[in-house]
Q: What sequence folds into this?
């Protein structure tokens, strides 16, 4: 594949939960290094779309290519693909029985067969990056929500993924902790990470996004650079959405 | 009356395990322990014939009872782990097999199962009586243990599984590295309960020519005709063992919850 090919290509993806159509023929391409922010009212399918990218949700039809590999096909080893896709959850989901550092080193040691001291070195440098090196030997339960989420980002980065997926990473946080998490994400964006972010943080979308994707009722309604989307939204539903939140 | 109006009552089948917060049970435990100790010591002193003789005759059986209990519980945990994992398996056949096992075992009295496995096993292979007894106890308790382990696994938030999968772990690795290490804290206290229940139920194996506490007592009584005195002593010995064990388990539970809270 050549450099112009998208690193994520979602083609005609449809997904049902029972009889409810959560995703309706969605098409989306993300280039390497691009930051895409997905907006939309709750129930619009934005989290579901994000979760199909690493197959935490299976799809009913269509295809999803990561780096040219058709990940929804049964021949593809999804665990291999997931190693290249970092994911950050709304509820952090840190491993409660492991220390902060062990949360970071578990996957590199077990999946990449990295030597323990190398994994710990990598883990500590990532904790440095999210400003939590001094908490390396604490347990998740001893940390604030914002700290837990920063650790969760570091845990995903420890696998050295090509793409980072964020599923409403600040929605479960108290307001005063939102910024410390967003700052880490901005830094990551500046470093050139490919990012797909589902969020309600409009400031973050304006500052970081290359493309804003607006979803409603399981479909992508509008897609535009943030300056266009926030100043001159085309679609009436985007306009209504922006009026409600701004 | 709607479903919500019905209060569910949950009663374990093990000994009453005292928690440090429950003052009523704690004092009941002390009274029972001290009372039992006094009787076990005083009866042989006051009336050496037959109590001292009984007390000398039975201890071989205590060893056997513990052997059967420990071997059975270990095997039951292995069976329970397989059953628990089978019961949550997405493979329909495995799931069905595990559920069927639980259903069948729960529906047949332990004593009937003991006879059945003992004689069925005896037809196939020559094994020592104690092995047959252990297998029978483990097959029965494995089904209960399976439910305990399944509940423990289910008690772990699904977000833990998703986080593990998202890193690239497969389902088996997720179970081994993430879910089971967290679930054991939930699983261990009820396993302790099952251990005490199993210890008491091993008295049933005395029927299979295994010389446990009860069997030794029956042998003594049959020769001496001191039925009342013998069964008094047997009851006291069982009581003493379960009282001490239930205290140990209560301490262990407390430690575990403390660990969680740190």
A:
């Amino acid at each position: 594949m050549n450099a112009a090919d998208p690193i994520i290509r979602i083609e005609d993806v449809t997904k049902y939960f029972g009889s409810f159509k959560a995703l309706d023929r969605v098409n989306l391409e993300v280039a390497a290094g691009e930051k895409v922010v997905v907006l939309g009212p709750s129930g619009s399918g934005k989290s579901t779309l994000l979760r199909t990218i690493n197959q935490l949700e299976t799809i009913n039809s269509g295809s999803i290519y990561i780096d040219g590999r058709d990940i929804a096909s049964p021949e593809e080893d999804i665990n291999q693909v997931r190693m290249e896709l970092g994911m950050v959850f709304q509820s952090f989901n840190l491993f409660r029985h492991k220390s902060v550092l062990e949360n970071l080193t578990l996957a590199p040691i077990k999946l990449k067969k990295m030597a323990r001291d190398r994994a710990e070195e990598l883990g500590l440098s990532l904790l440095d990056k999210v400003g939590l090196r001094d908490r390396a030997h604490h347990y998740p339960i001893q940390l604030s929500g914002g700290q837990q989420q920063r650790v969760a980002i570091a845990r995903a980065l420890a696998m050295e993924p090509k793409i980072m997926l964020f599923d409403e990473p600040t929605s479960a946080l108290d307001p005063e902790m939102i910024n410390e998490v967003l700052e880490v994400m901005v830094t990551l964006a500046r470093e050139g990470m490919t990012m797909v972010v589902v969020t309600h943080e409009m400031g973050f979308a304006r500052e970081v996004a290359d493309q804003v994707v607006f979803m409603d009722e399981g479909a992508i309604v509008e897609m535009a650079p943030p300056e266009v989307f926030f100043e001159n939204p085309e679609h009436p539903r985007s306009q209504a959405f922006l009026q409600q939140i701004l | 009356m709607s479903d919500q109006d019905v209060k569910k009552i949950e009663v374990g089948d093990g000994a009453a395990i005292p928690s440090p917060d429950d003052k009523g049970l704690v004092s009941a435990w002390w009274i029972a322990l001290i009372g039992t100790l006094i009787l076990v010591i005083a009866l042989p002193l006051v009336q050496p014939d037959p109590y001292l003789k009984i007390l000398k005759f039975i201890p071989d059986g205590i060893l056997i009872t513990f052997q059967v209990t420990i071997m059975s519980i270990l095997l039951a945990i292995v069976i329970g782990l397989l059953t628990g994992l089978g019961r949550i398996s997405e493979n329909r056949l495995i799931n069905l097999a595990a559920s069927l096992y639980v259903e069948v075992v729960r529906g047949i009295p332990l004593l009937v199962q003991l006879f059945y496995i003992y004689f069925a096993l005896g037809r196939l292979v020559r094994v020592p009586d104690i092995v047959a007894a252990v297998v029978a106890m483990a097959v029965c308790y494995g089904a209960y243990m399976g439910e305990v382990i399944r509940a423990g696994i289910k008690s772990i938030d699904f977000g833990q599984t998703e986080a593990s999968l998202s890193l690239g772990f497969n389902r088996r690795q997720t179970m081994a590295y993430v879910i089971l290490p967290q679930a054991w804290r939930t699983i261990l206290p009820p396993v302790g309960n099952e251990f005490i229940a199993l210890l008491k139920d091993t008295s049933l194996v005395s029927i299979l020519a295994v010389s446990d506490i009860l069997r030794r007592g029956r042998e003594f009584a049959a020769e001496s005709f001191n039925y009342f005195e013998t069964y008094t002593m047997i009851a006291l010995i069982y009581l003493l063992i379960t009282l001490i064990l239930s205290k140990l388990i209560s301490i262990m539970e407390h430690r575990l919850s403390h660990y969680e809270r740190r």
